[in-house]
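User: Show me an example of a complex going from sequences to structure tokens.

Assistant: Sure. Here are the input components:
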Amino acid sequence: MSIAFDRAAVEPSFGPARAALPEAFELGRSLAGEIDRVYFVAAGSANRAMLGIKYWLEHYSPAIEVRRYFPAEFMAIDPPRLDGRTLVVLASKSGTTPETVAAAHFLKGRPCKVVAFSQYGDRPLAQAVPRHFLVGDTSESFAAMFMVMQALIGGLMAGKDDWPLADKLMASLDALPAALCDAAEQNEARAAADAREFAQDRHFYHVAAGPCFTTAYVFGVCILMEMLWLHSYPIEAAEFFHGPFEIVDKQTPLILITGEDPSRPLMERVATFCDSHAGRVMKYDSRDFAMAGIDPAIRPIVAPYILQAALKRMAAHLSVLHNQPLSTRRYMWKVAY
Amino acid sequence: MSIAFDRAAVEPSFGPARAALPEAFELGRSLAGEIDRVYFVAAGSANRAMLGIKYWLEHYSPAIEVRRYFPAEFMAIDPPRLDGRTLVVLASKSGTTPETVAAAHFLKGRPCKVVAFSQYGDRPLAQAVPRHFLVGDTSESFAAMFMVMQALIGGLMAGKDDWPLADKLMASLDALPAALCDAAEQNEARAAADAREFAQDRHFYHVAAGPCFTTAYVFGVCILMEMLWLHSYPIEAAEFFHGPFEIVDKQTPLILITGEDPSRPLMERVATFCDSHAGRVMKYDSRDFAMAGIDPAIRPIVAPYILQAALKRMAAHLSVLHNQPLSTRRYMWKVAY
């Protein structure tokens, strides 16, 4: 199988997402006067994109309440606080995730506002909501969905909190596709070497803090566990010293995923511990990437995606060494569940 | 080592927690007019007790905003929404968890209200807050802390939302210690058999939904990973079919932890899948336990602790078979970190 990084295909595939940024931002700004709450509802990687966006809302916004739900839990909890001043953000890359589509129908007739993010307009999710944004056919749908959702929330914070970074955010999101491709290309040689070094391993632990936990989950679970069937567990840096670090030994691989957000010191503490007590550590630090076109104030917001772009190259090389294409599944789309 | 369940010691050790219930409830009720937000802040098992309490707040309360933080992340995020109408709930069993104590100091001079939960009044956490509740010296500090925190939040919901289950909650919490001991005793033979069956395994996956994810994390990480150094990963039932289920095979042990809350159907779906595709499954279902003295309407709220009491007996038997007391640590309290 070919795993070469095809920049000529990848970078233009962000076109629909880039094109959607201004409209998403303007929708967020226009809703500011009508919204006090944002409830994010998605499964899998889209949910973890929301995790990072929620972090920044909590860090920056004095005015906005925020929750993040898995769709099935959202419907089970059926929160009575959901009201006309609540914006529900739904997301599903394929637009067919059954629970997310069910949540869209569940919300019909409710007083809240609903907006959905997906790749395709002719799929059930987009068809079931009053307003949607599309990122089109791209191998980088995770990052593309993040871009447009973050633009929406940036607009909301600009309108509601006079968030001062809005212009910098929008310029940086527009530059992000190229920066992601740069990160993938920059990491190619290291990714190949890391994959060879860890090709025989069947356990991986991923440690990250703050918005970078998005990357720990998406790389650790959505890729290594789901696609390569590895035992692969993301650990919150804030929890590392409260139990999980007892699993550390000289043999078990650890991937330390470090960004530039206010939670970075938590990872620096983890790295110091691992320097003494772990034996096989990969450190991926967003500071090692140039991020051309990304404003210094916005680097912390996009760092999880820069690191994901880099790590994804390691998964590609691992898939060759495991002789298992990343599209392989045992059950998903193959059996009834 | 002796691992016999010593009911004569365990049940009375809940005395301070039971005694604190009415005062915690009354504090919650008295704060109702002054509070719009509850921010839970703790690490480890205390944080996961908050996870379940937060679930019920989201399910029942139209009036209360709620967030849950790890202490180090809470301080890094430094949420600007924290105001005079916010109640911050801090918890640390030992009262010495460095980040939780730091969070208490971080909050000094802030306009929010602060209440802490711990075992001991002479430790740094209780000393650093204006108001605290103590559960004393008990091997069941996790459940004891839950009881008193849930009483506080029950009082808050009673005062703010006219929550109709308050009286039933309080009677049931008072009966919970005996019901937990019943569950431990009831599960003794099965726990011993399960431990023998899985004594050679080094990977475990735990699946749970809603408030029972508390149990999946505390049993999976705080006990099996931290104390027995097993690769042990809790999975949200809502996420199971969106990636993690690809790890399922006929050999890998799965523990399905099923409660009686609105999210129970998510676990029933997981169990059906596992009946077909997994080979080595332990099912722990709260419906198998009588829960004497627990009101039917409150069973869903305490079920995670009933299941924890049952599962903890399996950990005790595993510790004998591994010849590793549950107090064993490689790093915690032993090295600098």
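The lines above are the inputs; the final block is the predicted structure for all two components together. Chain B has a mean pLDDT of 98.
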